[in-house]
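Obj.: predict assembly geometry.
Materials: sequence records (below).
Method: joint structure prediction, all chains together.
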Amino acid sequence: MKNIQVPRGTRDVLPPEVYKWNYVEALFRHICEKFGYKEIRTPIFEHTELFHRGVGETTDIVQKEMYSFKDNGDREITLKPEGTSPVVRSFIENKLYADTQPTKLYYITPCFRYERPQAGRLRAFHQFGVEVFGTSNPAVDAETIGLAMAFYKSLDIKNLELRINSVGCPECRRKYNDTLRNYLSTRVDRLCKTCQDRYERNPMRIIDCKVESCKKEIADIPLMLDHVCEDCRNDFEGLKENLTLMEIPYQVDPTIVRGLDYYTKTAFEIISHEIGAQGTVCGGGRYDGLIECLGGPATPGVGFAMGVERLLLTLQNNNIEIPKPKGIDIFIATIGENASKEAVKLLHKLRLEGIAADKDHMNRSLKAQFKYADKLHAAYTIVIGDDELDKDSVQLKNMETGQQEEIKLSTILELMKSKIK
RNA sequence: GUGGCUGUAGUCAAGCGGUUAAGACACAGGAUUGUGGCUCCUGCAUUCGUGGGUUCAAUUCCCAUCAGCCACCCCA
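Observations (raw C-alpha cells):
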C-alpha cells in the first residue's frame, strides 16, 4: 500500500526536536509575563469575513493564500493566516475594552497560508505574538519591541537587526500616495514589469525594487517618512526616544512597508541574516484603525508576530544549544520472570512518587538492558534476579561513575526519593 | 503564481547504460558463567521518490508527476 505523507509545506516535530519547542514556548511565556502581558487563546479557525476585513481585501494573504472552506452548516470558515485579527475579534466580542486599559495580550498559535514552501516559509507554521490595545503612546510601541529584543537576548541570539519606519496615518498616507503617483506618472513606462503592476496596486512597494534600472529611475523618490503629518512625526520621534532610553539599537528604514492593510504609524522588522531569503524573524507595528474596522470602539493597538520556525532556524544557524532534557532517574534491569514481575510493581511505585523510571519490554539480555539504560541516560541502574529477591539486596549502580553500592531492595523507593532531590 | 537545482536504506552518501547497488553513522545481535559507554565481529536496499517512455538492457537517458531546496514574489 502506498504511504501517506504530510501535506506539502507542513512537517512533524519529532521527539528529538520537540524539547526545543517546549523550551522557547516556555521562555516566551516567561518574558511576556514579566512584561505584564497575559496569554489569550483563540480558535484555529474563524469566519472568513474576519480576515477579509481584518487583514484587507487587497493583500496577498486574502487574495490567494487562505485555507478557506465551507463547513457542514454552510458557514464560510478560514484557518487563521495570522494572529492579530482573531485577538482583536475576541477583544471586541468579550468587551475587554471595558476593563482597565491598556489590554496587554500574548499568544502562541499555528497559522496557515497557502504559499510556495521554502526554508523558513511553511504552509502550516507557528507564531508568537503580542498585542496591546487602548493606548496610542509610542512608548508602548517601543515596549513591544523591547519585549521581542529581550526574548532574543535571553536566547543569546546576536546579529539581529531592528529596522523601524512610520507608514503614517490614513490622512498622511493618502496625501503621500498622491505625491507618489504624481512623481511616478511620468516614469511608469520606464519601470520594470512588476513595478508597473505595483504602480496600480501598491506604489509604495516600488521603493524596494531591486532592479537596477528602477533604482536609477526612482533615485529621488519621495519617502513616506518625509511626508508624515506632524502628529505621526512626533510619535515616530517618541518611538526612537524610547528605544534609546532602553538602549536598543535601531536603523530607520523608510522602505519597510507592512503587507497587511491595517498598519498605521510604527512599522518594524527584526531581521536575521543567517537564515536565507526569509530573514524577517519578527514583524509588527501599530494598527490604530483595526479595532474600529472590525466593529469595536475606536481603540488604538500595536503588536508584533514572530515566526517560531524561523526562530528555531536562527538558533540552529548560530549554533545556539537549547538545554537537553535529562534522562530517567533509574532503570530496573531484570533476570527471569519473577524479577520482571517484581520490577513492574516497583516501577509503578517509583513513578507514583515522581521518580522517572523504566524497564525493558523487549526481552533483552542483561547486557543489552544495560545498553538500553545507557541510551535512556539513566542516572542509576539496579539488577534484580532471583538472588536479589531472596536476599532483599541489590547493587545500585551509578551509571556515570560506574560505582555500585549494595542496598536493600525494600528501601529503594525511599533512597531514590532522597537521591533525586 | 514564475524561474532554477535536487530526489539512492532511519540519516549522510558512492555508483550515472550491462550479471550479487560501495562506504559511514544509526539500529539490532554477539565477543564463554548476571553489568553500559571504547574496541572488534555479524546482520540490516529483490531495489534507486512515483508513473510512463527509449533500449536487447536503465538507479543511470527522456517525459510527466510528487516532494525538498534556492531565487523572485510575499511574509513570520
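Conclusions so far: The mean pLDDT of chain A is 91.
To do: check interface contacts against the pulldown list.
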